[in-house]
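Why run this: before we spend reagent on co-expression, it is cheaper to look at a predicted model of the complex and decide which construct boundaries make sense. The entries below are exactly what would go into the expression plan.
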Amino acid sequence: MQALHALPDPEALAESISHQDRSAVAKALNLLDDKRPEARQRAARLLAALPKQRLYRSGHLIGLTGPPGAGKSSLTAALVRVWRKRGLTVGILAVDPSSPISGGALLGDRLRMLSGSSDASVFIRSLACRGEFGGLSAEVWPMSLVMLAAFDMVLVETVGVGQKEIDVSKLTDTTCFVAQPASGDSVQFLKAGIMEVPHVLVVNKSDVGNAARKTLSELRASLQPPSHTEGWQVPALTASATVGTGIEALADSIEAHRTWLVEKGLLAPGRRRFQAEWIIKRLAEEFGRFGIETLGGRSTLLSSLVEAQRPPFEQYDALRHRLLARWHDD
Amino acid sequence: MQALHALPDPEALAESISHQDRSAVAKALNLLDDKRPEARQRAARLLAALPKQRLYRSGHLIGLTGPPGAGKSSLTAALVRVWRKRGLTVGILAVDPSSPISGGALLGDRLRMLSGSSDASVFIRSLACRGEFGGLSAEVWPMSLVMLAAFDMVLVETVGVGQKEIDVSKLTDTTCFVAQPASGDSVQFLKAGIMEVPHVLVVNKSDVGNAARKTLSELRASLQPPSHTEGWQVPALTASATVGTGIEALADSIEAHRTWLVEKGLLAPGRRRFQAEWIIKRLAEEFGRFGIETLGGRSTLLSSLVEAQRPPFEQYDALRHRLLARWHDD
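The model came back. C-alpha cells follow.
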C-alpha cells in the first residue's frame, strides 16, 4: 500500500503515457487498482486527461480467449514477435487465472527468448494474482484505455468460456478464439450458440498429428450459417506457436478485421459502446436492476452514455451519485 | 396469459402436489412463472404451504451438467428408466438451451420409448423456451421445491460450463458432470479450477472406440488431489446411454452421494443454504452489492437466512420491502 502523498499527478502521468513511458503505464495501472477515494479521484482525472483520439480511434484492442491448455501464452508470444517485426508496440493484459502469463515469469521468459530481453516495447500486466476472478472485470476497461493510450496493439488474454466475470468479447475490437486440437466442447459450445462467435478462430498445435485440421473443419462447420457480424466472414485458421507456422496469417486476419471495422465505421462507436456497457455493468453490480431502472432503464442509459462521450469514471461517478442521493441514510 | 380469477388456490394446490398430482405440479410451475403481483402473492402462499419435511429432508435433487453434445438427454432417459425400475418417481427441470429436452418433443419421445408412454410418474418441464438464459435462474430454486414436494428424484439439466446464469452446483444435492469422449476442454477447465468439481463424473458414449476410457483417465487425473468435498471421493465412471451400459452404476453413485450427505448431516443444511444463496442472488440482481451491504452484508445475511428457516418468497419479500422503504420516490 503506497502512502497517499506518493500518488502520482494524473495529468503528468497521462502525458508520459502518451509518450509510451512504460513506468508511467505501470503506475497508471496501479492507480486504477487502488480503491481509496483519493486514488479513485486521481484515476478519474487520469482517464479524463488521456488523449481521446488515442482511446477511441487509434490502436487495436484484441481479445484472445480459449480454454486453458490451448496454448494461448505461446501464441501470444509468437504474435508479439510478428507485431514487433512489423514495428508495432504491444501491451498485454492477462486476466486468465490458468495462464502461465498470469502466473508470471513464464511468458516473460518466452518473450525474452523470442524477441530479445531488452525489448522495451512489450508491456505485460497480469490481473490474475488476486485469485477467484473477483473484481477483475471492473478494471479491464479502464486498464485497456491506459494501454491503448501507450501502445499500438493491446491484447487481453482470458479463458472465455467458463469464466463468468469477464466477457472480453464485449470489451475488445477483435476477439480471437484459440482452440486446441480435439476440442470437442468448444465446437459444441459454438454450435449451440452458448459461446459468443469470435471474429477470428484459430486451432493451435497444428504440428501435432492431424487433429488440428479435423477440429478446424468441425469449427468451420459450426460457423454455418455465418454469424451476426454484419458481413464479416470469420476466418478459421490453423497455427503452431511452437513451430511458428500460421502466425503471420493469424496476425493478418486480426489486422483485416480492424481494417473492416474502420471501413464500416464501427471502430470508434464500438469502443464508445464497450465503455457504456462497462459503466452499466458496474452500476448493475453495485445497484442492481432496480438502480438501472431508476436511471431510466438499460437502453435509454446506453444511448445517453454513448452519445455523451465523456471519460468513463466521470460518467460512472455522476450516475452513482444520482443513485446514492435517493437513498435514506437510515 | 390466464385471467386473474383463474389463478389456483395455493393451499389446495400444495395439497394436490404432495399427492403427486401431475396437473397440480404443472399449475404450480405456471404460477411461479407468472410475474403479476397477485400471482406472486399466491406463489409465496403456495411455497409456504408445501410440507417442509419434503422440501428440506426428502427426495434427491440432482444437477446434470455437461457440454452440449455430451448426450445428457439420452443419459437422462436411461437414468429415468433405472429409477422407475427401482420404484422412484421422477421430475425433470430442463434449463439447457441446447438440449433436445428443452427443445421439447425429443426427450418425451425417448422416455416413451424407454419407459412406456403412459408413465404418469415422470414429469418434464422445460425452461429454455424463453431463450437467451435471461431470468431462468430466478425460477430454478422455487420450481425445484415444488418438484421435490411431488417426486422422489428431481433432476435439473443444464449446460454447466459456459452458461453464465445458472450455477446448478449451488442449487442441487448432487451434481453430475457428463463429459463426452475427447472432451479436452472439460478436462482443462477442471484442471485449472475454472469448472466446479462435480460430485459424480461420467464419460458418456463409452461404446464408441477407446476415447471414453482415455478421457476418463484424464478426468480422473485432473481430480488429483481430491477436491473440497469434505471427504467425498468423486467417482469417475463411463457409461453408454445408447447401449445402456454403466447406467445402474451411475444411479448407484448418485444414490451413494445422497447417503453420504445424510450420514454427514449435510442434506438439510445444504438445501437451507441453497435457498439462502438463491435469495441473496435475487436481491443482488435487483439491488446490487449496495443493497446487500445495506442489509448487513453477505455473510450476516446468509447466516440469518439459514437460521430463520422460513419459506423462500416470504424471506425474499421481507428483505425486498426493507430495501424499497429506504428509497426516495424523488
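Residues 164 and 308 of chain A are 29 Å apart (CA to CA). Chain A touches chain B through 39 residues (CB under 8 Å). Bring this page to Monday's planning discussion.
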